[in-house]
Amino acid sequence: MRETGSLRLHRIFYEYLRESLHCFCLETTMKNCQTAVVRDPEPPRLLDTTLRDGEQMAGVALTGDEKVAIAQLLDAIGVPEIEVGIPAMGGDEALAISTLVKSHLNAELLGWNRAVISDLAASFNCGLQRVHISLPVSEVQIAAKFGGDRQRLWQQLHESLNFARDRSTFISVGAEDASRADPDLLLAVAQTAQSLGAQRFRFCDTVGILDPFEMMKQVQRLVHHLQIPVEVHTHDDLGMATANALAGLRAGASVVDVTVNGIGERAGNAALEEVVMAMRRLQGWDFGIDSRQLLLLSRQVHQWMAGGTLPPWKAIVGDNAFAHEAGIHADAILKNPQTYEPFPPQWLGAEHQVRIGKHSGRRAIAACLAAQRIPDPGWGDRQELLDAVRVRAIELKRGLAVEEVLALAASSAPQTFPS
User: Fold this and answer.
1) Structure pTM?
2) How far is residue 347's CA from residue 291's CA, in Å, rounded to a whole number?
3) Which residue blocks in 166-255 are alpha helix, DSSP H?
């Protein structure tokens, strides 16, 4: 084909961009190698914050017994660290946290605090030995919480860490709204926290405004300049919490924050079940989680925290995650489940389902009848049954139950049923 002037300009521009990107990647790699802190890599691990950030979802109010029960479920499936709540709230919250501390769970328990000595004292009064200290680092947050006074940020960072250092076994420091902070200020806060005894630094995309590419860029910078582990905390305001969590891990973060079903304030957080299954499927890493219990955990937590039922299209744990109706898909699934399933449902202790509805094909109808030990009608009769199924599904505006399919089969081809 003859190259037009317009196509030639597009080709030249594309080649220019490709070469520029290649040079930029080489330069960035060299800079990173020069500034990187060399240390042994740590296997990634989970921190579940369902009982803190998850419970901050509007309208949720867990009882103390429910908080304890959720913690026990998380512990039972192998979650290694649980952020249990905000002890400074006092009352039932503090009582529930104290009960959890005495519950002898295998999971490590972490209390969330502002960089305020009274908050930290409340954590220690509950018996917690591991504390998280959160500070605002973006201009908008510093203006709202500190009246724009950066000196107050530094003062509270020093005071809180000095207070906590001799009273705890573990301190993590979190940068609230890190994704909108000045990069140099963010790094300075992280390095100061490290020098004052913090053992982990939490990068928070508080309002969920990053994409995975920017997440990698920002987290890599912290990882390269810090000697302590970096933790990533993501939100789903733009629908990228799980993708950003995975990007953070790929950038070198050691810990990723999750909540069951992604529950949390506003649009929620990275979902525990999504991060676990994505890492297992894509990276071969399972976090030590018993994934066969994820469905039970999901449904129980949803009942306590939201009520009703999960959306059927919910990734991993929704009722439709391994359900197939479309004729082409169902036919392929019956031949080889790998055709339309990202991983075996058995990883979740589940099975795939071929459902009957408007979009079903003959093979799905035959499989449904065979499962009920009903003789398969011939191709012509099966088409009549299929037509009847489609008409009925449109009338009801839903899929059909097995009993409804059998009733249509009986009326469409009575000779297949004993009298």
Assistant:
1) 0.85
2) 6
3) 183-195, 212-225, 241-250
